[in-house]
Amino acid sequence: MKVTVEVEVRYGDLDTYGHVNNVMFFRYFEVARTKAFKKDFLELMKDGVFILVVKAECEYKKPINFIDKVYVTMEVIDIGNTSFTISYTLHDNNGTIFAIGKTVMVTYDNKTNKPIKIPEKFLKIIKG
User: Fold this and answer.
1) How far apart are the C-alpha atoms of 91 and 99, rounded to whole Å?
2) Is residue 71 exposed (0-12), middle (13-18) or buried (19+ Cβ within 10 Å)?
3) Tens-place pLDDT, residues 18-77
4) pTM, two decimal places
5) What long-range pairs does 39-42 form, CB within 8 A, spacing at least 24?
6) Which SUPFAM superfamilies does the record associate with it (predicted)?
């Protein structure tokens, strides 16, 4: 599954140096995940299944400025029994890459507080 979404750079995202604060890059990853999976996450939550971030990494390539138009391309690159890995590329529409990152996501049973096998219905979605 591969999705590209536009994220809005807000004035509050900037740090004292006038570019987007490094913490916001993870927020942009989250925005892309939410846009891609919101309906599916809500369905899973009704069944007591949550998707948790257990590992997050980001390699910064170039600062993002307030005037930049920013996109996040995310792709599920690995699928295990209870987890899956998403890669992210923060970029503009001219091919400039601002950052690359990954998150490892785990399907989690809210009642038992333990990882569970990825539900079949969601597995089909992330396999794209």
Assistant:
1) 7
2) middle
3) 999 999 999 999 999 999 988 888 888 888 899 999 999 999 999 999 999 999 999 999
4) 0.93
5) 40/122, 40/125
6) Thioesterase/thiol ester dehydrase-isomerase
